[in-house]
Design goal:
This protein has three domains: 2-112, Winged helix-like DNA-binding domain superfamily/Winged helix DNA-binding domain (Arc Repressor Mutant, subunit A, Orthogonal Bundle), CATH 1.10.10.10; 117-160, Arc Repressor Mutant, subunit A (Orthogonal Bundle), CATH 1.10.10; 162-226, Arc Repressor Mutant, subunit A. The chain is 65% helix and 10% strand. It has helices at residues 2-11, 42-45, 56-79, 86-95, 100-112, 118-132, 137-146, 151-158, 163-175, 183-196, 201-225, and strands at residues 13-20, 27-32, 35-41, 53-54. The longest helix is centred in the C-terminal third of the chain and has 25 residues, at 201-225. It starts with a helix and ends with a helix.
Length: 226
């Protein structure tokens, strides 16, 4: 019995120091029995204190929690630049060789805190494109699929898309750069531009003709004013 107790005592180690790392105040160096043992995040370190005895199992658990926290903080940093789809976050974590179990745990935390939401992401993507770089439904669907979204999520985001208005907006912006071209060259260049933006043939045909007429009328009116 005595020998068993002595062996158990030797397996535990006492926390003798908890100090912030010089390079990162959010990381804590843990010293056990007077020697540096490992570093953990400040969040994880909040559960321990100097003088506490730690078993090997408890040490392992702390390190696993720290690894999970690193994964979560990496995901938060990735999300800080712009909204991301769930698939984008997963790809980024895998790029950093994050274990699959930690990826699942990280995604669960993000979902719980509504920090990733594919439905909102899809809607925001469509709204942003429509405002700054108008595209047709076909092009938007391809982009969102590349972001890892399924058609079940993409379809509602495209339901209210006004492609004719978007094509006109994009064509008008581009058409102003093509005013020196004759009709055939104007039509080819603007049609190609709209096709690359994912608009259908009929929408392109109608839009190019409309923009050509409007820009031509605008030029004529300016000439008269001169």
């Amino acid at each position: 019995m005595v020998h068993g107790c002595l062996r158990l005592d030797k397996m535990t180690q006492k926390i003798t120091s908890l100090k912030a790392q010089k390079r990162s105040a959010q990381r804590i160096n843990v010293h056990l029995d007077g020697e540096f043992a490992f570093g953990i995040s400040r969040i994880v370190a909040a559960w321990i204190e100097v003088g506490q005895e730690l078993s090997p199992e408890e040490i392992k658990e702390l390190q696993e929690k720290d690894s999970a926290e690193k994964s979560y903080q990496r995901a938060l940093n990735f999300l800080s630049y712009r909204p991301r789809s769930q698939a984008e976050v997963i790809r980024n974590l895998r790029k950093h060789e994050t274990p699959e179990g930690q990826i699942e745990e990280t995604i669960e935390r993000l979902l719980k805190n509504n920090l990733v939401n594919d439905q909102e992401f899809a809607q925001l993507w469509v709204e942003n494109r429509s405002a700054f770089r108008p595209r047709g439904a076909y092009a938007l669907r391809i982009e969102l699929r590349h972001k890892g979204l399924s058609d079940d999520i993409i379809d509602p985001a495209l339901d209210d898309l006004k492609e004719e208005e978007l094509a006109y907006k994009a064509a008008l912006q581009r058409g102003n750069r093509l005013l020196n071209y004759e009709w055939n060259d104007f039509r080819k260049k603007l049609s190609g531009f709209l096709a690359r933006r994912g608009f259908s043939y009929q929408i392109i045909f109608d839009t190019v003709s409309k923009v050509w007429e409007e820009l031509g009328a605008d030029i004529e009116s300016k000439e008269v004013l001169k």
